[in-house]
C-alpha cells in the first residue's frame, strides 16, 4: 500500500471544472488583482489557494489521522460523537444516513476541536485517543493555528469587499471564543464496485470557510448554470476553499455556500483509500445567524431581493451546527417525519428553487 503522498495521478480524459487559483502570498501583499480574484471566487464556486505555507503540517496531520483511524474500532468508539449534535470526536462508518432513501455512509472521520487544540493539555470539550494526544502539541495545534490565521485573513478581505465596517466578521470568529471550528481527518475505503455511488451526497458546508486538502479525486462541484457534476482535480500544494452557510447568511447570499458532493475517485484512483483533511472555520457558538443588512448597503440590497426571512434563521451558530449534525445520525433518522429530526432538517442553505434538478 503506497503512502498518502504516492497515489496514482489524477487520470487524463476525466471532465473537470477548474477552480480559480488564488495566491495567498499575493493577498498578504495587498495585491488588488488577487483580491478581486478572491472576491469573484467567493461569490461563485470556491477557489484553490496556493502558497499557503501549511504543507508540512498537512502531511503530519495525515500521518496522525492514519495512525488514529488504524486503532481498533472498540478503542475508537470510546470517543464517538453520539447522537445529540455534538460534533467533536470519532465518527464511525455507517452511523449517518446520506439521503432520504436511508443510504448509510461509508466514511469514518475524526473531528478535533479548535478549542481543545488551543487549550491543550486541558480539555475544553472532550478527550481524544492517545494517538491524538501524542500529536496535539507538535502537529495538531500548529495546523489549527495556521489554518485559523489563513481563514481569518480571507474573511477579513471579504468583510471589506462586501462593505461591512472593519472587523465586523472578525468579531464573529474569535479564536479565544468557544466555537464549532474543527480539524477533520477523513478516511473512505477503496471503491471496488463497478456501480456509481456517492460517498457524500450534495450538501453545503455548515460553517463560514472550509480549508480542504485532498490526496485523491472525488470532490465534485456543480458549475453555475449547469446540470452536470464535474470533478475538481486535486493540485499538489493547493488547498480547496469553500464558503459555508454562515458567511452566506451574514452576507445575505452575496457570498455563495456552494453545493458539492464526494464520489469515488476516477478510474485507478478508486482502488485506494481516499484521505482528506479539512479545517472548518465556524462562528463563535453564541453568534446569531442573520443577514447584516443594517451594517452594509450591499447586503441590504441583496436581502431586499430575497424571499422574506431567507437569511434570518433565528438561531445561533451552535444551534445551526447541532441541528445539521444531529439530523444526519441513523438513530435520529425518520423516513417521512414532520419534526426537527427529519432528513430535510439536515439541509443547509442550498436553494432547490435555483437548482431544481439536484436531489438533496
UniProtKB/TrEMBL annotation:
Gene3D superfamilies listed in its UniProt record: B-lactam Antibiotic, Isopenicillin N Synthase, Chain
Keywords (A to Z) from UniProt: Dioxygenase, Iron, Metal-binding, Oxidoreductase
Keyword Zinc: no
Domain Fe2OG dioxygenase per the UniProt entry, residue ranges: 177-283
One Pfam family, short name: 2OG-FeII_Oxy
SUPFAM superfamilies xrefs: Clavaminate synthase-like
Keyword Iron-sulfur: no
Molecular-function GO term, any one: metal ion binding
Annotated family: Belongs to the iron/ascorbate-dependent oxidoreductase family.
UniProt xrefs under PANTHER family: 2-OXOGLUTARATE (2OG) AND FE(II)-DEPENDENT OXYGENASE SUPERFAMILY PROTEIN-RELATED
Protein known as: Gibberellin 2-beta-dioxygenase 8
